[in-house]
Every structure is written in C-alpha cells, then in structure tokens.
C-alpha cells in the first residue's frame, strides 16, 4: 500500500460507479480517476449547473468516457428515491458515498432532520438501501465506500438526541454524523457477511484536504473574516483534492480491501500523500449494539427498509 497512487488503479472497464457530491473536491477527483480507468460514472450532485460542468470536465480529462450527471439532493429523501428509481441499468458495481456538509449553523433538511446528520448519514443510508439490489446483482467486486472523517472522534451518535435538538454544537454535530458513517459501514458489513454476500462495505477519509467544505458554514453566516482565515489555513496546511481522494479510490478499487476496512492518508495534513495504512478509528464505531441501534433508527426515520435474502 505504501506509495500507492491513482496510476495503479486496475482497469474498471465494464463497471458502473455512482459518486455522490462529484461536482468538486475529492468527489470530482474520484469520479475523474474512475472514468479514466474505463468505468461508466454517474455524477450524483445537488446543483445541476455545477454537476453538468463537472461532467464536461471529466469528459475533457477522460475522452470517450461514459459519464453523466444526475440530480441528487441527499437532504431531501424524495430526491434520493427519484435518483434511485431513475438510475438506468440493472447492476451497479461501485457506490461512493462521498457528499457531505461540515460544521453548518443549525439547519434542517427537507424532511426535518438536523442537516449534517440528515445529509451525511441518513441520505446515504437511504440511497445505499435503495441501490443495494443492484450492487448484489454485480456480485464479486461490488463495493459501498462511505467517506467519513478523522473528526469522527469528536463524538459518537446519541440515540436519545439524533437530531441534536438540545444544545446544538456544529462541530460535535459534524463529528457525530461522521461516526454515524462508520457505524453504518460496520453494520452494513456485518449484515453482508451474514447473508454471504460478495458486496464489500468499506470507508475512507481524506485527511485535511482542500475542498469547499471548510468555508461553507462561515460563508452561510456572512462571516467574511473567518472565511478568509479558513481559506488561508487551507492553502497552508491542506493536501490537494488529488491526494485527498486516494484513500477513497484505494477502498473502491484495491484488491486487498476487506469488510469494514477504513483507509486514510499517512498524515492528516499536506504531507500526508498516498494512503499508507488502514486508518485509526474510535472504538465506538465498531460497537455492534450501537451500530444495530443506529440502523434501526435510520430505517424508521428514512422509511427505507433494507431487504435481506
């Protein structure tokens, strides 16, 4: 794994991938590199203008690639269902749950969930459940890769207050949503093993990568000075989106990926480079009772019940 780079991605011809949040940052790089290796890629993005622009950029980087934009708003469960129903074909090889929001002021999704929990976890939980039959159809080599964060250590999910209705704190909410990503991966992996499925559930994190996540919250509040400070810190310390995407690409394509694996860069910051290790994760993200409890709550909240053979 040491020194691994995108040039080592195996041929993806004949495979189909869905990448959420593929219009920018590590999502765009992930989609572009998969397309360069021959995968048919669906760019699942909320903003149509940015999504279509990203489609053209991928085509320019990978001439002849089978790539297209499709609208998906993870903060609206009706949009999640419409995306799943409108996705053509019977099989899907890779689902990259990449899109997310970070440290926003208190907001609610269309369905009334706390925005970070609702977007980062519940939207992807529903999407994965709706697309799982197609991933099963693909069989060997099919994967669900969910992008978490090293900041999941800020806190685990509180089953008594999933939507942080009491004392909202934006960074704790973000950490909990990323812990939810890892608990989801853990429980999905357990259930796939129990059914004897060849679909693999894994996770990754980019370290501190230069994306638009860092400035979204302060921009929403009109805090210009804070926005400039964040932008300066990102320029000084963050690694590139190309490096930040490597753990995701490794989890999606490398031959040695196992159920419930979690990959990250060697270091969180600019010098991190290629993913050289399986990442450290908080022990609560492998707690069977917590993952099962979150799963049950997620099915109840989203109305998406996974069908198991």
From TrEMBL:
It comes from the Bacteria. One of its GO terms (molecular function) is oxidoreductase activity. SUPFAM superfamilies: NAD(P)-binding Rossmann-fold domains. The keyword Hydrolase does not apply. The keyword Transferase does not apply. Keywords: Oxidoreductase. Belongs to the short-chain dehydrogenases/reductases (SDR) family. This is Oxidoreductase. It comes from Streptomyces telluris.
């Amino acid at each position: 794994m040491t020194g691994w780079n995108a040039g080592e991605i195996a041929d993806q011809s004949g495979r189909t991938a869905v990448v959420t949040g593929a219009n920018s940052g590590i999502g765009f790089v992930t989609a572009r590199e998969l397309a360069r290796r021959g995968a048919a890629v669906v760019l699942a993005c909320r903003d149509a203008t940015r999504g279509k622009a990203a489609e053209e950029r991928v085509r320019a980087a990978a001439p002849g690639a089978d790539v297209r934009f499709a609208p998906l708003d993870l903060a609206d469960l009706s949009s999640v269902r419409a995306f799943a129903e409108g996705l053509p074909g019977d099989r899907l090889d890779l689902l990259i749950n990449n899109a997310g929001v970070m440290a926003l002021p208190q907001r609610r999704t269309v369905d009334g969930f706390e925005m970070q929990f609702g977007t980062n976890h519940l939207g992807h939980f529903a999407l994965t459940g709706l697309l799982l039959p197609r991933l099963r159809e693909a069989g060997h080599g099919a994967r669900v890769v969910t992008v978490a964060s090293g900041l999941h250590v800020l806190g685990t999910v509180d089953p008594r207050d999933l939507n942080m209705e009491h004392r909202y704190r934006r960074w704790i909410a973000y950490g909990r949503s990323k812990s939810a990503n890892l608990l989801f991966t853990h429980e999905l992996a357990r259930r796939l093993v129990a059914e004897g499925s060849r679909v693999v559930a894994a996770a990754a994190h980019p370290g501190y990568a230069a994306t638009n996540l860092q400035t979204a919250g302060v921009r929403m509040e009109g805090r210009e000075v804070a926005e400039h400070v964040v932008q300066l810190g990102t320029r000084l310390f963050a690694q590139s989106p190309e490096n930040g995407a490597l753990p995701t690409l490794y989890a999606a394509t490398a031959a040695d990926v196992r159920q419930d694996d979690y990959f990250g860069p060697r270091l969180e910051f600019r010098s991190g480079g290629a993913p050289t290790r399986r990442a450290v994760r908080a022990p609560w993200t492998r707690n069977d009772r917590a993952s099962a409890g979150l799963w049950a709550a997620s099915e109840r909240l989203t109305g998406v019940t996974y069908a198991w053979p």
